[in-house]
């Protein structure tokens, strides 16, 4: 069973998804879909509320940036990466591997 449909995703508009007790930020960029941990490693802010530029997302609270492809932290004040998830797209179905 898929976690969501491609129709649920708008290009560069992140969405928050709960799966198995984990909060996940899912973002579609062009034909690619990325999933990283939704909670900023600097503060308890939801990354799904942030802005997407290229393949990075900026936390709305303090401006820390993360790579959507890997979860790697790209700028202060965050210093720790967030988890990255494998995304499987099959037709219109999007599944996040936990």
How would you describe what is shown here?
It is globular, with a radius of gyration of 12 Å. The strands form two sheets. A six-stranded antiparallel β-sheet has the order 1-9-8-4-3-2, with no helix packed on it. The chain has a three-stranded antiparallel β-sheet with strand order 5-6-7, with no helix packed on it. It has strands spanning 4-5, 15-19, 22-29, 32-37, 51-53, 56-58, 65-67, 84-90, 93-97. The protein has one domain (4-97): Rieske [2Fe-2S] iron-sulphur domain (Rieske Iron-sulfur Protein, 3-layer Sandwich), CATH 2.102.10.10. It is built from no helices and nine strands. It is mostly beta strands and 98 residues long. InterPro entries: Rieske_2Fe-2S (IPR017941), Rieske_2Fe-2S_sf (IPR036922). Residues 1-96 form the Rieske domain. Keywords: 2Fe-2S, Iron, Iron-sulfur, Metal-binding. GO terms for molecular function: 2 iron, 2 sulfur cluster binding; metal ion binding.
